[in-house]
Amino acid sequence: MKNVSPIDSAWMRRAVELAARGIGSTHPNPVVGCVITNRDGHPVGEGFHAYPGGPHAEVVALQMAGSQAHGGTAYVTLEPCNHTGRTGPCADALIEAGVSRVVYAVPDPNKQAAGGAEKLRSKNIVVEEGVLRDEAEAVNHVWLHSVRTGRPFVTWKFATTLDGRSAAPDRSSKWITGPLARADVHRKRAECDAIAVGTQTVLDDDPELTVRDEHDVPAVRQPLRVVVGDRPIPPTARVRNDRAETLLLPTHDPAEVLRQLDDHQIRHLWLEGGPTLAAAFLRAGLVDQIVAYVAPALLGSGFSAIGDLGAESIDQLRRFNLADVTRLGDDVRLTLTPLGGN
């Protein structure tokens, strides 16, 4: 969008900040933020979408603004919806409130909910699109990716020594990284909709695959646990306990895994292991982000963090964009994205 005013940028930036508060709690809905200013340009309401079935960001902001929204402007990170689900259309709420202008950042790619901008214009409301679109895309990238591609956004997470080992020769792997890195894993798990491992990881490590805080207290909302592969899982395995739901997928095809998870409205898959499962997703081009926790330690033997990727010479090296480096105690978290996307 051309010639964006500093005022529009400022209020949309606030809306993006508000949207981020919903990360990890809105599944399967998007994260959305909204700011309402009155006819004099002063902020009178703000809100964000906090949980599925709850009021959308525009409704929360309008409730705060009350009658002061009349003749004012609504700044929204995503095009106001034109769909009746568990809540009514946000476009209708804005029309009823009497706003004179709506500024939104990203068009809604969901065909069921799109059309809000057109409805607003039909009521002689000024509508402007694209303000801080990149920022609004970034905060909502998981949901946008899922809706646009028809499959979950996939993050592969692993912990490794400096020499790329994820487990010792006896298959022991606790603990490669320190407590700060492990706590960070749980925080990031909490932002996902599902956690996937292969059957070998379940048989070797017996993980529970749940989210816990620093006091080992389970989170209120647990991601779906997904076990990929056709090997039998013992009834005593911890992934079968009642701490979270578990889905067994007897397949080795990454695309089929994602197809079935999309049927379950999974937007963000957290891929944890093991090396064979991770390699299968990488070879299929179905990893959208890598989160690697690297410890300042060496093993010199044991199991690699990744299986065979089919490379036979150095020119087949797979390189990634380094998006972020964060120190967590003595460990380092690297966040990477594919070169050129998938």
Q: Which characteristics define this entry?
A:
single chain; 342 residues; eight-stranded mixed sheet; five-stranded mixed sheet; 15 strands; elongated
Would you give an account of this structure?
It is a single chain. By secondary structure, this protein is α/β, with parallel strands linked by helices. Helices cover 27% and strands 24% of the residues. It has helices at residues 6-20, 57-65, 90-97, 116-122, 133-139, 141-149, 179-189, 199-205, 254-263, 275-283, and strands at 33-37, 43-48, 73-78, 101-106, 126-129, 153-160, 165-167, 194-198, 224-228, 246-249, 268-273, 289-294, 303-304, 320-328, 331-338. It has an 8-stranded mixed β-sheet with strand order 10-9-8-11-6-12-15-14, sandwiched between helices. α3 (90-97) packs parallel to α4. The two termini are 27 Å apart. The mean pLDDT is 92.
Write the layout of secondary structure elements.
Blueprint (H helix, E strand, L loop, with lengths): L5 H15 L12 E5 L5 E6 L8 H9 L7 E6 L11 H8 L3 E6 L9 H7 L3 E4 L3 H7 L1 H9 L3 E8 L4 E3 L11 H11 L4 E5 H7 L18 E5 L17 E4 L4 H10 L4 E6 L1 H9 L5 E6 L8 E2 L15 E9 L2 E8 L4
Parallel strand pairs: 3-4, 4-5, 6-11, 6-12, 8-9, 8-11, 9-10
Antiparallel strand pairs: 1-2, 1-3, 7-13, 12-15, 14-15
